Amino acid sequence: MATCVITIFIVEDFVSWTQQSTDWAQETLYQIINHRYRYKALVVTTNVSLSQIEGRILSRLSDDQNGGIVRIDAPDYRLGASNDVTTDAPWCTTINPQMLFSTFTPQQNEPLTKEDKKSITNAVHMAKVVAAHPKGTVVVGGETYSGKTHLGSSIAHELRTNGWQVLYVSTLEVLDCLHLWRLD
Length: 184
Description:
The protein is about 40% helix and about 15% strand. The protein has helices spanning about 25-40, 55-60, 115-130, 150-160, 170-184; strands at about 10, 40-45, 65-70, 135-140, 165-170. The chain is globular. Mean pLDDT is about 75; it is low at about 80-90.
């Protein structure tokens, strides 16, 4: 089996079902996150409260000495977004080629409060820092359609443009793929 070094691992849609998942799934997620936490860059996007994430995983994701947590408190901005997507592997989450830092304009659909603008500014800043210097663990949280996927895709595009190896997958895809390999 061929291997490659992944500079940054972006886990899209880290969802609450992980709390009700099997012991194997919990342990597998923990092992992946623990390894990335110790040695490599990791970005996680989620629309669940951090309190819904299993304790060992949460302790790695919330360690502010190794990264940071940023929350987007803003309304849906992706209404009408294109569905054109690209991917490097058949089991990877597809990345919308239009989701770049330059196209991140959340204020287009609804007026934003000062708090909304501040949370978006913080999230974009954190994402650009990760794209420039991929290290540590960063969690981007927020409601559905608040811009988490757009920022994750923007990070992936920026890093790939600069020659970095990026793996961009959903939590469910990771577990499905690893489960199938386990059965082989």
